């Protein structure tokens, strides 16, 4: 894991002091709310429906056990004993008082954390594959590059007042687990024919009211030019992105209105100029130095097959479901990557209590090299667990409501906080997620349905990623009533696609039945259990689902 | 972990801030903070004839020797600022003037036509129509870093203290400050900077030195005068 040096500590301390001063000036009335807003947002402080919300950065989703313990402590001391993990791999506290925020930031700084640039019209927390550093299929660990981007984008003097927020994602495998193509800039680490590392560069993805899948503007960018190229993209956007309409201000709109070919030409022209200044070339030894922080842990050698693991599977159906759905292949034989589901049946997606955070921290220390990850699917991950340890790990998780074996299944639902918390929302999300989770909750039914992602947003801003859900639900306000529109066929992986609206929306008490109808239609029409929901929708189109929902035309 | 029911839960008391927003609430002075270092002050501010001039430059308020040329006005005798478009239209006729020329570049306006004539200009004024509009940050950097402009770059418009340290790193070295609170804070020696930097910009108008092992980490060099204080 990355560790702060003296400079990083000085930097974060000075930032906390700067924000403490800004909070004081706000409280004393020297700063208007209008002037304070972008400052607090860049420090992670949102004004929600009921209170301020503090969004804490978990850079590229990587946490240590010690950091997780601090989050638990903050949840107890300053919040209501729980926190909410988000689709940006961050953590939100929903009830802090503004006056406590500088103290919380100081506590975070003591464990090398911050809330920098988790909101506002700046470069946001950089996300990555939550299996990074452990996945069997990665080219190399993408996190050193995410860390370099995190550093370079921190309080960037030129790019802190952009037209709109700006999100970067770095992945390193063909299989995209991080929704990379829905980001403003997506980077895929790869090797060229000569075996050199570099990036495929994607620009202009985003969700919100105008969902777009990013366009590839570069097939191979040499590793050393990472910052120069990103700076070129940022400058083209900063100067030319629309500022007349907040809803048309993301880079996806600039790309769309300018055309991919022309925007690519502008980026390449700017990149050529940036290279001439020669300020941003990444030195090889510096990449190596950062990479060393992310060196793979030294894991004891194990046989690929674990007797204890196989015996536990033979013993218990619940454990088998957990092993099949929540344990993913690790680079090292005899190890697995464990997804700790924050989606208990009937629960609130992404919520974790302080006690649960501490349990995960303990387990990380005991079984996973003290490392934890947060996934954009709002689950936690223990990346380096020996198969031999799985039964014991599972038993402890089960004691604390963390062993639901539903990763990737229909109840592994993404939902935004919705109208229960959010000032922007038109409809609730959490209640719908809970209802669907209960309806599909039986292990047999989930197994029968197989891989299926439901994603729920309480408004058009799409924080719940509904556009890229296999089934997406969008809450809208229709004459004072919450109504949910259903989209089908969205996808956030390497086959990224925006779902298609299937028809008129459903009221709160109808939407659960409607989703069941969609799922039953799939089960009836699929070619077999090997054809998952997404594949079936792609083959069948909307028609049979439309007919099942609204009757034959 | 039960969420509040949206429509029925009474809105929680907001932070004190909401109360302080009410008219009549007395503003309290912000306590001084270590990191809000004083901007290096080469000369005592009292030596200036007009300490209350509109321009924040060289770490103090100074009088403005420049005149902005109004739309229907002839270009004056002294140092004159012209909007970019007018400068380009009239530049041939301005050749015999002895006084310095300045150009006003609007946020997002392209520099390409100005660049060939940049040597004739000693001041570029960049507009910030709103403090949250960062286009002129890019323009300032391009002027310094790419086009080697060594004259004065002035920020005008919605210039507030919290953006000024960033502007200075992008190449701005004078600030047309209208906001009374910002003026008061500057006069009190405030400069709300995080004096540690992670971008090796070639445009900064302050002395920065390497910090730590990273090739791009910088911190602000302390002015010798200040170190002696």
UniProtKB/TrEMBL annotation, chain A:
Stored InterPro entries: NIR_SIR_4Fe-4S, NiRdtase/SiRdtase_haem-b_fer, Nit/Sulf_reduc_fer-like_dom_sf, NO2/SO3_Rdtase_4Fe4S_dom, NO2/SO3_Rdtase_4Fe4S_sf
Recite the UniProt keywords alphabetically.
4Fe-4S, Heme, Iron, Iron-sulfur, Metal-binding, Oxidoreductase
Q: Which residues form the Nitrite/sulphite reductase 4Fe-4S domain?
A: 119-272, 413-548
Record domain Nitrite/Sulfite reductase ferredoxin-like: where? 52-110, 335-399
Keyword set includes Ribonucleoprotein: no
For whether the record's keyword set contains Iron, the answer is: yes
Q: Name one GO molecular function term.
A: oxidoreductase activity
Q: Which Gene3D superfamilies match?
A: Sulfite Reductase Hemoprotein, domain 1, Sulfite Reductase Hemoprotein,Domain 2
Official protein name in the record = Nitrite/sulfite reductase
From TrEMBL, chain B:
Which stretches of sequence are listed as region Disordered?
A: 18-59, 203-229
Q: Which domain of life is it from?
A: Bacteria
What InterPro entries does the annotation carry? UCP030820
- What start-end ranges are recorded for coiled-coil regions in this protein? none
* Biased composition regions of type Basic and acidic residues, renumbered to the chain: 31-41, 219-229
Q: What Pfam families does the entry give?
A: DUF934
Q: What is this protein called?
A: DUF934 domain-containing protein
């Amino acid at each position: 894991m990355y560790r702060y040096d003296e400079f990083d500590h000085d930097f974060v301390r000075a930032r906390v002091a700067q924000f403490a001063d800004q909070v004081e000036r706000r409280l004393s009335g020297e700063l208007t709310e209008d002037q304070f807003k972008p400052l607090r947002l860049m420090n992670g402080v949102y004004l929600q429906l009921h209170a301020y919300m503090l969004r804490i950065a978990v850079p590229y989703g990587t946490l240590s056990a010690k950091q997780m313990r601090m989050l638990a402590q903050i949840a107890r001391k300053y919040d209501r004993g729980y926190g909410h993990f988000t689709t940006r791999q961050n953590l939100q506290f929903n009830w802090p008082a503004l006056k406590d925020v500088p103290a919380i930031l100081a506590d975070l700084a003591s464990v090398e954390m911050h809330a920098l640039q988790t909101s506002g019209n700046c470069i946001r927390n950089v996300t990555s594959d939550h299996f990074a550093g452990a996945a069997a299929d990665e080219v190399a660990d993408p996190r050193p590059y995410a860390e370099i981007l995190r550093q370079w984008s921190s309080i960037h003097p030129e790019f802190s007042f952009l037209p709109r927020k700006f999100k970067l994602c770095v992945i390193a495998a063909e299989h995209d687990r991080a929704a990379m193509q829905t980001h403003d800039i997506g980077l895929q680490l790869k090797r060229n024919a000569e075996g050199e590392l570099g990036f495929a560069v994607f620009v202009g993805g985003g969700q919100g009211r105008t969902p777009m899948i990013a366009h590839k503007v570069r097939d191979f960018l040499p590793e050393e030019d990472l910052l120069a190229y990103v700076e070129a993209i940022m400058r083209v956007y900063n100067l030319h992105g629309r500022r007349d309409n907040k809803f048309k201000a993301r880079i996806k709109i600039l790309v769309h209105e300018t055309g991919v070919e022309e925007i690519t030409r502008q980026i390449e022209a700017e990149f050529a100029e940036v290279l001439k200044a020669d300020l941003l070339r990444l030195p090889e030894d510096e990449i190596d130095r950062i990479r060393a922080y992310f060196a793979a842990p030294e894991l004891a050698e194990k046989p690929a097959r674990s007797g204890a693991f196989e015996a536990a599977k033979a013993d218990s159906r619940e454990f088998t479901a957990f092993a099949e759905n929540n344990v993913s292949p690790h680079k090292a034989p005899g190890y697995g990557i464990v997804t700790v589901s924050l989606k208990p049946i009937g629960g609130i997606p992404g919520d974790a209590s302080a006690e649960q955070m501490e349990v995960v921290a303990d387990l990380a220390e005991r079984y996973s090299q003290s490392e934890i990850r947060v996934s954009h699917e709002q689950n936690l991950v223990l990346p380096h667990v020996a198969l031999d340890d799985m039964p014991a790990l599972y038993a402890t998780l089960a004691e604390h409501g963390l062993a639901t074996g539903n990763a990737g299944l229909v109840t592994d639902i993404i939902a935004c906080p919705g109208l229960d918390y959010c000032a922007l929302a038109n409809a609730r999300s959490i209640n719908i997620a809970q209802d669907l989770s209960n309806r599909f909750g039986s292990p047999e039914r989930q197994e029968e349905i197989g891989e299926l992602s439901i994603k729920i947003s309480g408004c058009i801003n799409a924080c719940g990623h509904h556009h890229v859900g296999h089934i997406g639900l969008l809450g809208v306000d229709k004459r004072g009533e919450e109504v949910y529109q259903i989209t089908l066929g969205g996808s956030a992986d390497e086959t990224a696609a925006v779902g298609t609206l299937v028809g008129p929306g459903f009221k709160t008490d109808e939407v659960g039945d409607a989703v069941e109808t969609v799922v039953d239609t799939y089960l009836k029409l699929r070619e077999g259990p090997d054809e998952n929901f997404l594949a079936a929708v792609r083959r069948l189109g909307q028609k049979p689902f439309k007919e099942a929902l609204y009757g034959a035309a | 972990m039960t969420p509040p029911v949206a429509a029925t839960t009474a809105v929680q008391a907001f932070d004190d801030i909401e109360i302080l927003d009410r008219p009549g609430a007395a503003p309290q002075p912000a306590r001084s903070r270590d990191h809000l270092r004083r901007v290096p002050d080469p000369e005592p501010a009292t030596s200036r004839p007009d300490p209350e001039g509109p321009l924040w430059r060289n770490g103090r308020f100074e009088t403005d020797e420049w005149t902005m040329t109004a739309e229907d006005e002839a270009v004056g005798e002294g140092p004159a600022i012209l909007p970019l478009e007018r400068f380009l239209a009239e530049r041939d006729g301005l050749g015999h003037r002895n006084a310095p020329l300045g150009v006003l570049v609007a946020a997002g306006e392209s520099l390409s036509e100005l660049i060939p004539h940049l040597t004739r200009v000693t001041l570029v004024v960049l507009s910030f129509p709103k403090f949250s509009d960062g286009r002129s940050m890019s323009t300032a950097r391009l002027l310094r870093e790419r086009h080697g402009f060594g004259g004065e770059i002035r920020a005008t418009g919605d210039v507030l203290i919290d953006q000024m340290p960033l502007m200075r790193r992008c190449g701005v070295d004078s600030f047309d400050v209208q906001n009374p609170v910002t003026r008061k804070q500057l006069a009190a020696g405030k400069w709300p900077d995080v004096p540690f930097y992670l971008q090796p910009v070639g445009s900064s108008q302050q002395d920065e030195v390497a910090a730590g092992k990273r090739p791009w980490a910088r911190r602000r060099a302390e002015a010798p005068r200040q170190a002696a204080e």
